[in-house]
Design goal:
By secondary structure, the chain is mostly helical. The chain has ten helices and no strands. Helix 6 packs across helix 7 and helix 7 packs antiparallel against helix 8.
């Protein structure tokens, strides 16, 4: 595996600043219709500066999407870590996921679905989320806070719903955006495990 080059601190900070701006822009407007020149203009930087993020638009998109999910996962886990009640940790997790998805526009999800490399990042994160749900179910059952269930089944069922949310099937069937679908999923799972 190639080593990631160590960037000078000033360059690293500028790259993080650019990623933050790109995340905000992509979540609000999507990314498919934005060229490198327009991205640079919108971020008030040169193309050369924008290429601190990655060497091509496609790689900039993937780096930004990866950054979005990484930061979101860190915030979700911080909320879970702050919850001491085993029976509420699963609800906290699913609610935190819904909150993190809330700012993403329909244009962002459409562009994710239409660009395979970015969609792979979303799918991988959906898989991690399903594994985390399974882990939280096991913890809740072992603590006696959730009724005894087959955690693997619950994890697999939640993974299927998460996947259907991610592919747009849930929105097509219900009209619910991803964030609201996660809130409904949280309510359903918790009602079944209480």
């Amino acid at each position: 595996m190639p080593r990631t080059p160590v960037l000078p601190e000033k360059t690293r900070l500028r790259r993080e600043e650019l990623l933050a701006g790109l995340r905000e822009l992509f979540l609000r407007e999507g990314f498919a219709g934005l060229g490198v020149g327009e991205l640079a203009a919108r971020l008030r930087c040169s193309r050369t500066t924008l290429y601190l993020v990655a060497p091509s638009k496609e790689q900039i998109v993937v780096a930004t999407v990866r950054s979005y999910f990484k930061n979101a996962a860190e915030r979700v886990e911080a909320r879970v870590a702050a919850c001491d009640e085993p029976g509420l940790r699963l609800a906290t997790y699913l609610e935190a996921v819904a909150s993190e998805l809330q700012p993403a526009s329909e244009a962002f999800y459409t562009d994710l679905a239409g660009f395979a490399p970015a969609n792979e990042v979303y799918q991988a994160n959906t898989g991690f989320a399903a594994q985390r749900v399974q882990q939280l179910v096991v913890e809740g059952v072992e603590a006696g806070a959730l009724r005894p269930v087959n955690a693997s089944f619950v994890g697999a069922a939640v993974a299927q719903v998460m996947s259907a949310i991610q592919t747009g099937e849930i929105e097509a069937a219900t009209g619910l955006a991803d964030a609201e679908a996660y809130r409904q999923l949280a309510d359903l799972v918790l009602a079944g495990l209480a």
